[in-house]
Design goal:
By secondary structure, the protein is α/β, with parallel strands linked by helices. It folds into two domains: 17-139, 3-Layer(aba) Sandwich (Rossmann fold); 142-321 and 350-394, 2-Layer Sandwich (Dihydrodipicolinate Reductase, domain 2), CATH 3.30.360.10. 36% of the residues lie in helices and 22% in strands. The chain contains 14 helices and 15 strands. The chain has helices at 26-36, 53-62, 72-77, 92-102, 117-129, 145-156, 176-180, 195-198, 201-211, 288-293, 297-304, 327-342, 353-369, 380-394; strands spanning 17-22, 43-49, 68-69, 83-86, 106-109, 135-137, 162-169, 216-223, 232-242, 245-252, 260-266, 269-274, 278-284, 314-320, 373-374. The protein has a nine-stranded mixed β-sheet. A six-stranded parallel β-sheet has the order 3-2-1-4-5-6, with helices on both faces. α1 (26-36) links the parallel β1 and β2. α5 (117-129) runs antiparallel to α13, α6 (145-156) runs parallel beside α9 and α9 (201-211) packs across α13. The longest helix has 17 residues, at 353-369. The protein is globular and about 80 Å long. Residues 18-131 form the Gfo/Idh/MocA-like oxidoreductase N-terminal domain. It comes from Brachybacterium halotolerans. This is Gfo/Idh/MocA family oxidoreductase. Keywords: NAD. Residues 148-271 form the GFO/IDH/MocA-like oxidoreductase domain.
């Protein structure tokens, strides 16, 4: 009788990323729950870090058995995590990301990537020097079907080149009590800005993701306009995308009604997004210039007299999308794990975070100096000098370098 051998084990155990959450605030707590509840494929909760004793006590209660640290460097050095997410104040994102990457720990930084481009560029340089370590950013709106579908359409070239775009996003109403919760809110030294760095980073990222990175910006900002704060609570900005394409961005925190409307006009069509849910896509039968050149003087006369139905020159498609809040963050976390485990392309490479920081900083610097700011050759030293002057005037926070 021939003895049969044990079946060969051909299946391999699934790789699992041990995530360390730095900062157990509202966002960090949400991510910890997502991971501990098993909602993020390829990821487990490795450790939690917070310098607040009450939050550490909460972490131990809500996540028994998960190591809790009061110092993020100790957590990194303990070998308890393979990756971290930095749900901390904006100024700390680059510092913590750099420390993690230099220790061989993968990093998912929260938005914005930082407050000023000098620190973000340093973070990007460190990440580039360690390609074996994953560096991503939480641009969760890039998973929203509203915008992923539009990205595919725009990149296909079907609508031609961009002519102009406008985004009015004033759905950030914040009563004074919101700012009074913490001494660092809406300060130059504690937060690094107002609506541009706290509420609008996702829109600044999406705008550039869809339309391209602007070449320059001119902006008028109101500082402490309708709130008792030091930083900007209303923004009006004009950007130049190059090749004749321009854009307008309006945001504020004092509109109790609020508007969220994105328009993008192209050579052969137009896109209008309302409330980040309803999308209207208009496609011209030919590009606009061809339609214009094909009209005779008689056609123009008939057009002005209402005898030509311009509706015959285009078709309209309307799409309504359901809210996908919550699942977006899970998708980014799962994608982060998949990149670490399997090399899956990232939804948002961390290096791209500098684009939104540069645009926000450019808007602030333009308002401070009254001139148009070159974004392609951004004056990072001048911006930092101006920022530190405002931090010094506050007298509550250290200067930045």
């Amino acid at each position: 009788m021939t003895e049969q051998s044990e079946p060969e084990q051909t299946a391999h155990a699934e790789k699992v990323v041990r995530l360390g959450v730095i900062g157990l605030g509202a966002q960090g707590g949400t991510y910890a729950r997502f991971v501990s509840d098993g909602k993020v494929e390829g990821m487990t909760l490795g450790a939690i870090c917070d310098d607040d004793p009450a939050k550490r006590e909460r972490a131990a209660t809500e996540h028994p058995g998960v190591p809790v640290f009061d110092d993020y460097v100790s957590m990194l050095d303990a070998g308890a995590v393979d990756a971290v997410v930095t749900t901390v104040p904006h100024y700390l994102h680059p510092e913590m990301t750099i420390t993690a990457i230099e220790r061989g720990v993968h990093a998912l930084t929260e938005k914005p990537a930082g407050v000023y481009t000098k620190q973000v560029q340093e973070m990007n340089d460190v990440a580039a020097a360690h390609p074996e370590t994953t560096f991503a950013i939480m641009f969760n709106q890039r998973t929203n079907p509203v915008y992923t579908d539009l990205k595919t359409l725009i990149d296909s070239g079907e609508l031609g080149r961009l002519r102009h775009t406008s985004w009015i996003i004033t759905t950030w109403w914040r009563p004074q009590a919101y700012y009074d919760q913490s001494a660092w809110r809406a300060t130059w030294g504690g937060e690094g800005g107002g609506v541009l760095v706290n509420q609008a980073p996702h829109q600044l990222d999406l705008w550039q993701w869809l339309c391209g990175i602007p070449k320059s910006v001119f902006a008028k900002l109101a500082f402490g306009f309708q709130r008792d704060i030091a930083t900007e609570d209303e923004v009006n900005a004009l950007v130049d995308f190059g090749d004749g394409a321009t854009g307008h961005f309006l945001t504020s925190t004092n509109d109790i009604i609020g508007t969220d409307r994105l328009e993008m006009l192209f050579d052969a069509g137009k896109i209008v997004v309302e409330g980040s849910k309803k999308v209207t896509i208009t496609r011209l039968t030919q590009d606009e210039r061809t339609l214009s050149d094909g009209m005779s003087a008689e056609d123009v006369r008939r057009l002005f007299q209402g005898q030509i139905d311009t509706g015959s020159l285009y078709t309209t498609e309307v799409k309504d999308y359901e809210s996908v809040w919550g699942s977006q963050h899970i998708q980014v976390l799962a994608n982060f794990a998949a990149h670490i485990n399997h090399g899956t392309p990232l939804i948002a490479d961390g290096a791209e975070g500098i684009n939104g920081v540069r645009l926000a900083s450019g808007m602030q610097l333009s308002a401070w100096t009254g001139r148009e700011i070159d974004l392609a050759d951004f004056p990072s030293d001048e911006y930092l000098l101006e920022l530190n002057a405002r931090i010094a005037d506050e007298g509550d926070f250290p200067a930045r370098s």
